[in-house]
Amino acid sequence: MNHIPIFAKTYDLLLWLTPTTLKYPREHRFALALRTQQAAFEFNELIVLARKTRDKRDLLLRADARLEQVRLYLRLAHDLKLLNLRQYEYAGRLVAEIGALLGDWMQRVGAQPRGGNDEPR
Predict the structure, then answer these.
(1) What is the distance between the alpha carbons of residues 106 and 87, in angstroms, rounded to a whole number?
(2) Of 36, 50, 53, 54, which shows the fewest CB atoms inside 10 Å?
(3) What is the rounded average pLDDT of the residues 33-50?
(4) Which part of the chain is the bAvd-like domain (predicted)?
């Protein structure tokens, strides 16, 4: 199973992300911190379910969307000066590695996201 590293990388992200986001100032802790954590945990739940089911396509597409949310929330946290550059780069590397692993998995099961007309302009 070539997609097993995705679980280790996701665990590393969750292990780092949880205490880091809890250090956000109070005014951001319950909006941005909670949303970031929820998106990351939902991503993990979706890939676990995908591993355990036959029809992985929908779950992997949903996981891809959650990972995109995590990426956005981390960028927002950096722009709001809640994450310093070192933290943002670390998280960005982890998310990029997870994204590459997810993309490989999606390609193997034929679950590539559809482009085209449904993309925002």
Answers:
(1) 28
(2) 54
(3) 97
(4) 8-109
Grade residue 30 by pLDDT with cuts at 50, 70 and 90: confident
Question: What mean pLDDT comes out for the span 33-44?
Answer: 98
Q: 13-39 burial by CB neighbour count: b if 16+ within 10 A, else e?
A: beeebeebbeebeeebeeebbebbbeb
Domain boundaries defined on the chain: 5-109
- Angle between helix axes 85-108 and 4-21 (nearest 10 degrees) is 150
Q: Which residue type does 59 have? A: L
Answer yes or no: is pLDDT of 117 > 70: no
Class of domain 5-109: mainly alpha
Q: Is the dihedral of CA 93, 115, 102, 19 positive or negative?
A: positive
pLDDT at position 115: 52
Determine the angle formed by the axes of helices 4-21 and 34-52, rounding to 10 degrees. 160
Looking at per-residue pLDDT, the higher value among 1 and 86 belongs to: 86
